[in-house]
Each structure stands twice: as structure tokens, then as C-alpha cells.
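User: These chains co-purify. Model them together.
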Amino acid sequence: MKKRKERIDRGIKVRSEDVFALTSYRELLYLTAPRLLPVFGLLILVPLSPPYWQEIFISTAVYALLAISWDILVSVGLISLGQSLFYGVGSYVAGALNHYCGLPPVLTIPIATVTGAAICTIALLPVLRLRGIYFSMVTLVLPLMILRLVEATRILGGTEGLTGLSPFPNQITAMYLANCCLLVALFGFRRLMDSDYGLIIRGISDNDRSVMSAGINIHWYKTQILFLGGTVGCFAGAFGTHHDMFAGMPGFALDYSIMPIAAAVVGGTGTFAGSLLGAFILVPLSEILRALGALRIVFYGLFLVVFVVGLPEGLFHYIRRKYHQFERWVEVE
Amino acid sequence: MKGGEELLTVTKLLRAFGGVLAVSSVDFQVKRGELLGIIGPNGSGKTTLVNLITGFVKPNAGEVRFKGKDITGLPPYRIVGMGIARTFQMVKPFYQLPAFKNLIVPLCSPRIKGLLGGSYGDRDAVALDLLEEVGFERDANVAYKPAGALPQGYLKRLELAKAMALRPELLILDELFSGLSLAEVASIVPIIEKLRFQGKTIIMIEHRLKELFRIADRVMVLNFGMKIAEGKSDEVMADEAVKKAYLGSEAG
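Assistant: Joint model of the two components:
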């Protein structure tokens, strides 16, 4: 007699799918708890941590923003291997405005977010028609090209970069700015993907010919998503550059490309919450592993392998399934 | 309605893939309100012809005019915007989505926004109405099932509904009947007849000749990318060249 696992949706999940039909505070809690958890964590728990950890959580937020930006590009079928392009462009635009024009962060960050995203979109526009690996190749090469360009032509401070940029008034301000924007991106993108607009986006990555034959200009939609993802990535860059008081070549380094992808894959793609979760596991983990010295990368790599093999769907998808469904063993012939 | 103005005019359309002429200098016209059947053996260029008209493949030479305007080589979304919708031979719906959600994408197209302006109502409701029109029984809630769980017959109807959602003037159905049972075909034929009654112009690519001949006004036969016959269905079947193409050159 074989056994098979059967999954059944919880009643409350079924009832709350379309119309909210709540009958108790318990059900209200069931629905709101998963949404309140990141809000509570980012706005209350994280700022209460000791100063050393606050610093780590700020860089975690930067990586989480880049991971969310990566995730929205994936949702339209664009796999970016160069999130550092967004980080670097955002960081240099904000840095240059602050260094040469003396604008304060209140102005440089919003300007860098929008113009940076526009620059990245225009730079990637010619390859937007390419599918799959071809787009990825170009995103991988572009930041490295800019890196060498800065080095060779010595524009924007050359190898030294732009130093002495205006910092944030204090760490708490920086932390709230990053975390609030993280929450806006998280809930904003989730809502966007649940709308009819999101349906078109998912359709393009699923079967672009079908969407084309539905009379929709898929390149225009891809451009919009690229710009949206770009704003989040460039904000991360502009924020990071003022936090570090430095804009330079490390902004285009491979770290900013690899870590967001690892975070999104470990957390689970397509949900944005997974990217957030992944970043908040991987970045602090890499800090804890610092105690191991040279072996750090080995253990870090091992953890990634175990995670990806053990939970290929991603952590968030796993948790969500456990939350919404219960399982039981049934006998089959 | 019949014998009206020419809606679609195709002149000397040509497309080669490598050394193979997939479509070679094909001319034909479709009049408003007409149902034109296109038949031909496998690999005779029928689907390429559809791809050329709808902009998925660019022609090497020739011209496609729709309502008097040159649409040769325009991108697919522009051609849909002018009023040509098509179905695909291989149906690939968005499998995880409920069937009716599949219609949201065409309902979001600029063409529908342009036709209906802001006075739109609920897209979900429009989608459910459309699915009922193509035979999704409302009582059985088939429209709410994930598209991946539907049998072939419903998937073909969903494909038809996706094209109808665009409110086209010219509807191109690429092998809508392939892979369906006789009963399933018999249940789709009335939907097509109703569309004709509403004045839609239809081009049908078909392998199921019997069913096609019953509803087509005119039939065109392709072989090796060339038009070998055109006319009423019985005339076409009596044609020597057509017999040769279908039965091989030995048959008399």
C-alpha cells in the first residue's frame, strides 16, 4: 500500500481569496500577520538592534532593494546578471550631484533614482528585444565596461572616486529611509503584480507570442518594468553612496550583482517577499561567518548549495505553502 | 453582406526560409463578411501565410493591404490594433491562471481601450461573458478552473475567445479543429456561424475538409507555398491539381 501526501487549502484561505469574509479576530490575524511581520520587523525590531548590527542591517536593506529590483525584472522574463549597473549608476549620479553641484541628499537621492533609472533603461534599450541568455550577457558586461571607462578616462574622480559626500544626519534616519523604501517597493510591487497590469507582465514571461497576438506592445511593457526595476536599484545606489559618503568604482563590482540573485533564489523568486527574506538571511549570515576567517567563503558556499538543493522552490514559497495548506498522508493503490 | 468591399488584399507575397520558399508569390482577396478556407497538405505554407499577414514573420516581397491600408511588415500589436486577430495552432494558455483570467490580457489591449474608452465595466465580467459565448457552461464553473486543467476542446474554445475578445473585423483561425473529436467540432461550428451572422470576416486554415466545406464560402488550396486552386468547395475538390497534391501524382 503506497502513501501519498495530500495538500488541502485551509478554509480561511479559500474564503479570503477574493472577498474578505472574516468571522473572528483570529481570522483577521491570520490574514494580517504575514503582512504586519515585515513592517514590524523593519520599522521596530531592526532599529532597536545594537549599533554594529544596525550597520549590517543597513547594508542588508541595500541588497534587499537590489534583490527586489532583480525579482521584478525576472517577472517579465529579463534575467539580469548586472544589478551593479543600477547600483553604480545611482551611486555616481547622486555622488556627482553632491560633489560637483553641492546638492543635499534630500535632492540627490530622488534625482538619482529617476535619472539613474532612465540612463540604465536607455543603455539597455537596444538589447531589450533579446531573450534569455543574450540579455543577461549584456547586463553582465555593461557595468564592467563602465568600470574600465572610469578607470581609463579618469572622469568622476577616476580610481579614487568621489569622497567626502554629505552623510545622513544619523544612523536611525538612514535606517528608516532604507527600510521605508524597502517596504514601499515590497508592497507596491506585490500589488502591481496582482493587478491586470501584472497579469500582462506575467503573460509576457510565460508566452510572449500570445501576448503580442493580443495586441499588446510587449517591448513597451518590458521598458516600463526595466525602468521600475531601475528606480529601485538606483535608489539603493544613491542611498548607499550617501551612507558610505563615497561614490566609486566598487559600486560597479560583482558583489552587487551576485548577492541580490543569491538572495532572491534562496528566498524564492516572483514574490518580492522572498527576495527580502533571502537578503535578511544571507547578508547577516555572511557577517556571522566572518569569525571563521578564510573558511568563510567555503561555509557560505556550502550553505547556499544545501539551501538551493534542499528547497529549490525558495524559502518563502515553502513557508507560504505551510501557512496556507495542511498536509496529510492518504493511501493510494 | 456578400460581394461587399475587399477587406484584405494579399499581392505577390513571398517568404523564403533558407533555400525553401515557404510562401511563393501568393495572391488572394477576402471580401467583408466572407468565410475563406485555406487548405493544403502539411508544410504547404498555410501557417507561414498567417504569420505573414499578422506580422509575426516579415515577408521578403509582396504586399498585404487591410481596409485599403498597407500593413506589410508592421509589428503584430499594430496589426491587431487595426482589427485582425488570430488563434494559434498550438494552444499555450497561461496554465496556472483560471481560464477567464486568460482573457484579461487581450481585454487590456490598446484596441479595446480605444473602442470602449473609459466606459468599460468589470474586465472579469466581460471575460466570463465571452467564455459563455464560446460554450463554457456558467453553471459548471468551468471558467474558474485553471487553464492547465482543461481538456483540449475547452482550450481551443479559450483560444477562440482570446481572439474574439479583441473584437476583430477579420478573424484568422489556424487549425482550430485539429485534435478535436467530431462532437467537439460540431459544438464549435455554431459559434463560428454566429460570428458570421454578426458580420465578422473569417479565414480558416483547416485539415478537417468535411467540416470546413460545410461552412466556407470559398476555398483556397496551397501546395509547396503556391496557390494551386481557388473557388467554391466542390469546384476545388474536382480540380486535378488539388487531387494530385492530396493523393499523390499516381491517382487519377
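The two ends of chain B are 39 Å apart (CA to CA).
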